[in-house]
Design goal:
About 0% of the residues lie in helices and about 50% in strands. It has about 160 residues and is mainly beta. The radius of gyration is 17 Å and the shape is globular.
Amino acid sequence: MIFLNERLVGGWSGAVVNVMESTSVVFLPGGWGWSLLDSVSGTTSVSRFRWSCPAEGLLRLRNVWYVDGATGRDGRFAADARVTAADDVFETRYALTRRRHPWAREDEGDEAALVVDPALDYENVFYRVPGSFTAADDPSAALVPHPPAPRPGPPPGAWRG
């Protein structure tokens, strides 16, 4: 059984790794997701993963693909991007809280924050990104398509024995 914390579903963005890079992470409802490390040089790295929460406050990412290369203005990878299959696991403790964003104006309040330790793609604090996300939003989706969504099962109680 895979356990998912539905409060993690959606997009999260780090403030800034440093002045040259930024990172973000997306958790999709079906247990897929990706992290994106973006550089001002035009180089982008995406780690596609399966995610779960095997224990309270523990986040497990099982990486299945890494995609690295140049991206266009649309944020999509060029056809010559490097695609590498993966099968490694990263675990981090996490907490969902509220924090003041480092770039917030004085009149703005705290925002939803995801705090991880150890860091994910060099970032320990991520802030909620408004909106919803699908597999089509993954910058690597054109090079490594997401598996199709599972077909819905019968409604509860439909099977009678």
